[in-house]
Amino acid sequence: MRPSSFIPILAVAGSTRGIRILQSNDDGWAESYLRELHSALLRAGHDALVSAPAENQSGTASRDAEPEPRTAACQYDSCPPNSGPVGSNATDPRLNWVNSFPVTSIKYGFDTFGSQLWSGAAPDLVVTGPNIGSNLWLQVPFSGTIGAAAEAVKNHGTPALAFSGFTATKAAWNTLPPPAAATLYADLAVKLTSAVIASGKPYLPEGVFLSTNFPSVSARCSKVEDFKFVLTRINPYGFSGPDADHCGGDTRLPTETQVVLDPRGCYVSVSVADAGDKTTAPADKQTVVLGKLGSFLTCYD
Q1: What pLDDT, in 10s, does the model give residues 207-251?
Q2: Does residue 7 sit within a domain?
Q3: What is the pTM of this model?
Q4: Which of 121, 179, 211, 217 has the greatest number of beta carbons closer than 10 A?
Q5: What's the CATH number where 264 sits?
Q6: How does pLDDT run across 76-110, given as a tens digit for each residue?
């Protein structure tokens, strides 16, 4: 880990504005996207803890299996061979790996790593990703990043935010400088996370999570202030609906695919997702989110 990434536990725990955040992903605990978000959450004053797969587990949806002892080194040689079924960074107990799937990692985050670090307390919020690559429409049910967020809501009763980034840049945790997309997506994720937290508890309606997709990083879309967050739906209209009344009485929200791939602007899609089936949540749940986030969300036209 880069020295700037480490913040002593007591420094974070003493923050008056920080909350307990459990992190995971499906790309692996040593990927730069996850680690950059971890560092950004710590800088924002949050008590963040990582519990993620020991290696890339993309596309594993909601699979779950008891971790098995490793014989090979972890992703990017981030743990030595024969390290057992689970493990932690030798100098930072906030960074933990599980030799299994993202859903399993979330379970260990709640029951083992988080319980140890937080003296039995549960996380206030679960944040997964940013996924390396988008999770749009038909990709959603297969994503381990999405599956981990759904697990937190469905089986642990904890609100969750899942982040995915269209620009797919794989890099190890100790790559210097980190990929531009990793840093930018981390800052964007913290921006939405902060807005959700500022809206007050309960952070989200029961039974839902937010699935957020960042568009490609480009010369035009390269700074946090370039981006606008838009409320969207996961599946096309007709598979579910109507949606919440937003932006001029239209009860058909744009799809996340439409928004993220729009060449006109740097639009971030924010979909209210049902944790049970990973599709668009009903209008009443969307309305609650609209009421909480208010002007943070931009009208799309």
Answers
A1: 999 999 999 999 999 999 999 999 999 999 878 779 998 887 778
A2: no
A3: 0.93
A4: 211
A5: 3.40.1210.10
A6: 999 999 999 999 999 999 999 999 999 999 999 99
Residue with tokens 């972890």: 74
Sorted by sequence, the CB contacts under 8 Å of residue 51 that are 6+ apart come out as 22, 23, 24, 96, 97, 98, 105, 106, 108, 109, 112, 113, 114
Query: Domain range for residue 106?
Result: 20-293
User: What proportion of the chain, given as a percentage, has pLDDT over 90?
Assistant: 88
Tell me if 188 is assigned to some domain: yes
Interatomic CA distance for residues 79 and 82, integer angstroms: 9
Does residue 271 lie within any of the structural domains?
Answer: yes
Cα–Cα distance for residue pair 204/223, rounded to 1 Å = 27
Q: How confident is the model at residue 10 (pLDDT cuts 50, 70, 90)?
A: very low
Angle at 67 between CA 65 and CA 69, to 5 degrees: 145
**Residue 191 half-sphere exposure, CB side, CA atoms within 13 Å?**
19
